[in-house]
Amino acid sequence: MSKILGIDLGTTFSAMAIVEAGEPKIIENKEGNRTTPSVVALTKKGERLVGTLARRQQITNSENTIYSTKRLIGRKYSDKVVQDEKSKLPYEIREAKDGGIEVKMGDKWHKPVEIAAMILQKLKKDAEDKLGEEIKEAIITCPAYFDDAQRKATKIAGEIAGFDVKRVINEPTAAALAYGLANKKDHQIIVYDFGGGTFDISILDVSEDTVEVKGTGGDSHLGGEDIDQRIMGWLVDEFKKSDGIDLSKDKLALQRLKESSEKAKIELSSAIESEINIPFVTSDENGPKHLNFTLSRSKLEDLVKDLIDRSIDITKKTLKEANLKPSDIEEIVLVGGQTRMPKIQEEIKTLFGKESKKDINPDEVVALGAATQGGSMSGEIKDILLLDVTPLTLGIETLGGVSTPLIEKNTTIPATKSNTFSTAADSQTSVEIHVLQGERTMATDNKTLGRFILDGIPPAPRGIPQVEVKFDIDANGILNVSAKDKASGKEQSIRIESSTGVSKEEIEKMKKDAEIHAEEDKKKQEVIEVKNQAQSAIFTVEKTMKDAGDKIAEDLKKEVNEKKEALDKIKDSDDTEDIKKKTEELMEVIQKAGAEMYKAQQAAQTEGQTAGEEKPQAEEAEFEEKKDEKPEEKKEEDKTKEK
Amino acid sequence: MTDKKTKEVKHKEKLEDVIKQRDEYLDGWKRAKAEFINYKKEEAVKIQGIFKYANEELIDQLIPVIDNFQRAEAHLTQEQKENNTIKGVMYIKNQLVKSLLENGLEQIEVLGKQFDPNTSEAIEEIEDSKEKSGTVIEEVVSGYQLNGKLIRAAQVKVAK
């Protein structure tokens, strides 16, 4: 099964990905980077450089360093776009005999398709080196607005590079594929692609077996770099005000300003303000000068408001042209690093009234989508092997009404998890397994999926029996819960259909509820823990006292009883601090008594066994993780609890 | 008679189909298991790599600090160089550089050599009658490698 490489051939950067172990993964290039600059150069010595190396020598060799060929590929020389670009490009271009374009690199004239092929060739070699196998096939992406000639040229570029190009797919479609949106029926998807240099909007119509482009729009000269420029401009202005020097004339200073601007922009996506610190940015007759300003997120948003507004206007226009309203759009996919900006995400949310898909790295999502397509085609991603996840946590109710998880949410299924629990009361002969679904801490706040009882447990002190509870979900989402008493071998089980068949809205709601109540749930759990420990301490003490009989001195016995009474009185109150304190005091005093007993025993030289506490077993930990290991007790009801 | 035979043939075909499917599934299962085992092995190698380059990100962020120290040093007048307080600050800079060197950081020598995009980024081309074309005549910021891997390319001015 040969693998198909997915390639995002971008204007300024390219990326590649492949499906490994069922999942698309970005492949790093030889230099160890996840993206490769789409730049090719021929050095004066006649050496061909591609990628970062080509970029590094660009300034010394600008006539022979070719970049942005994507703006030229598949076009005619007479195209307005080409004529516009021509004046900006430091390298020579001319009309080819067939009306196409040729670019000069060194002494030779190349078609843009050949330059693109050089980039693809480097990607191919780097991928083969990384993966240790030959890569013969590829899927290459292109903008949705590319016409036939441009698509054909993209395909030919791949072929020149040595690939069998299985398909040239649209970038927005690839992004939708990466999010698994192409399986949905009758979905309208909008892909908002705000990259480094270009802005593209695409409206897709997804049906059973096709993805159709309903409309495209954009601005080929609107991107993240324009935002960097605005910050740079602001820094230059501020510095003029503070130090009276115009940094825009200073190439070296500008370079540092550019780097710092980009860094600040990125920081402001998560922080509210960013300090821009450039020591020794320049100097004059009075000595060195330093640049040190703080840029706030709101100021940045101010500086670029018109740019963001432009992107939203283009979005609205494209919708209108496709005869659609924002409410007609089911999903929004974000592509391009610039979409990490909170303001942009906010504007999009306001326009469409819903959250966009942004979990996948927006710089890599197109390459990952292309790889996904390749994976489906090469059979790496077989439909029958498409695995689901269980969307919500599954567990059972334990001592105190707590919901104890057995299978965490987002676990890939089929899956099996089991855990050992025990009884809450002495001589408890049956336990109730209450199966729950949800993220809340308390059983009552989660959804009941089912209940059953396992009886016939041989009578034993509480905490002794070992009941193994097993959760098994098969690939269809059917949950089988079984409980087995290890001693008697008695087993009972229940089968629950569609534990994964919860609606998307329900899932979101349950998750949100859990978040909102997280603090309060945590507190509740803590209170229960404290109360359980108090109860446990009381039972332990009672047992110890009973077993010890006369071995404990009278005055110690009195002290123990006093402390026990004190705790018993308040253990059901809400004063957790007091309960904790009295529990500690009780444990202290009973341990003192215990120590006395040991001393007495040693002195009397009787043999071994004290009827002390059983050693803690398996799951004790869960409920009382960090505390001491005394088994717990609940009231006399038939409730399962942890050991 | 013929009826029974067709039934037999049908069953034979069905059995062949099922055997084929079973073989496919078993093969797929084995591959998945093998992929998982290989993935674990790769992760182990990756983790080793992470330990080796764990410091890379931190050192990466400290390099601009050294850059600025170097800029500061370049601006010192002779008088300032002799100022004791400034001397002290420069000793601190040496201390910082030393710590980084001890962690595998190495400065790359580029000045006076032919420009090499493998280690340097050209930020300006300057007319220079004395130097051969393509020679690095000024190192604006130094280039560094960490444990043999390029971590930051030098920024240089090159003779035209």
Query: Number of DSSP helices of chain A?
Result: 16
Question: What's the CATH H-level superfamily name of the largest domain in chain A?
Answer: ATPase, nucleotide binding domain
CATH topology label of the largest domain in chain A: Nucleotidyltransferase, domain 5
Q: What is the H/E order of chain B?
A: HHHHEEEEEE
Q: What is the terminal separation of chain B in angstroms?
A: 96 Å
Task: Examine the secondary-structure arrangement and name the CATH architecture of the largest domain in chain A.
Answer: 2-Layer Sandwich
Helix content of chain B: 55-70%
Q: Which structural class fits the helix and strand makeup of chain B?
A: alpha+beta
User: What proportion strand of chain A?
Assistant: 25-35%
Q: Over all CA atoms, what is the radius of gyration of chain B?
A: 32 Å
Could you explain the architecture of this structure?
The complex is a heterodimer of chains A (643) and B (160). With 643 residues, chain A is an alpha+beta fold. Chain A folds into four domains: 4-179, Nucleotidyltransferase, domain 5, CATH 3.30.420.40; 224-305, Actin, Chain A, domain 4; 389-516, Sandwich (Substrate Binding Domain Of DNAk, Chain A, domain 1); 520-612, Up-down Bundle (Substrate Binding Domain Of Dnak, Chain:A, Domain 2), CATH 1.20.1270.10. Chain B has 160 residues and is an alpha+beta fold. Chain B contains four helices and six strands. In chain B, a hairpin with a 2-residue loop joins strand 4 (143-146) and strand 5. Chain B has a domain at 1-54. The interface between A and B is medium-sized, with 25 and 28 residues.
